[in-house]
Amino acid sequence: MNTLPRLQLPRLARRARKLATAAAVGVTLTLLAACGTPGADLSPLPPREPMAYQLGVGDQLRVTVFNDPRLTGEFRITDTGAIALPLVGAIPAVGRSTTQLERSVEAALKARNLFNDPAVAIEVSEYRPVFVLGMVERGGQTPYQPGMSVLSAVAISGGFNYRAVTDRVSITRIDADGKAREYLGDRQSLLLPGDVVNVYERGL
Questions:
Q1: CB–CB of 61/67 below 8 Å?
Q2: In angstroms, rounded to a whole number, what is the distance separating the alpha carbons of residues 111 and 67?
Q3: pLDDT, tens digit only, all 204 positions of the chain
Q4: This prediction's pTM
């Protein structure tokens, strides 16, 4: 029976190890390709247009009716999409700006003969929260602040954890037509009240 010279055995062993390593790398790359890049199928988050803020369920409003403290106070927009004012009743609020809601309240006061020429001022005293989910230290709801970015929301949630993809996230937002849509965002994307941020998990 033929035998290989002893000097050739180490060479064959090294070559076998190289082939095994190359095969393992190939399998890993194939798996990564199959997994795909998180968020690759999502449209980019559209830039924020300079428009008046649209009110939503959960926003708390400071309503001031001048010369009548009975109607002045803090009111939260309920699940019905309205605020309930004393002596007036429910006023639809979702999807409106504060200026539009001011006009609606003034019209309701006139219709009920409470004022001849009412003057109403409305401001948002507390925005509905954003939600940060996925690979962060403390997922859940986070109080919204004007100008809040993905990175600042993640920081309030304890930061990225060790398994997080840190350069892109998905953002689910209720658009102007009332439908929820999921977009691809990054660390600097600006958020709106009610947004849901999902931090992806790193692959293999």
A1: no
A2: 18
A3: 444 444 443 443 444 444 344 444 444 444 444 456 777 788 787 776 656 788 999 999 999 999 888 889 999 999 999 999 998 999 999 989 999 999 999 999 999 988 888 999 999 999 999 999 999 999 999 999 989 999 999 999 999 999 999 999 999 998 777 789 999 999 999 999 999 999 999 876
A4: 0.70
SS3 label, residue 146: coil
Structure tokens at 177: 């037509």
Q: What span, in angstroms and rounded, lies between the C-alpha atoms of 199 and 81?
A: 29
Tell me 135's DSSP state.
Answer: S
All structural domains of the chain, each given as residue ranges with its CATH number in brackets, are: 60-126 (3.30.1950.10), 128-201 (3.10.560.10)
What burial letters (b/e) apply to 40-57, b meaning 16+ CB within 10 Å?
Answer: eebeebeeeeeeeebbbb
The answer to whether 199 and 136 have CB atoms below 8 angstroms apart is: yes
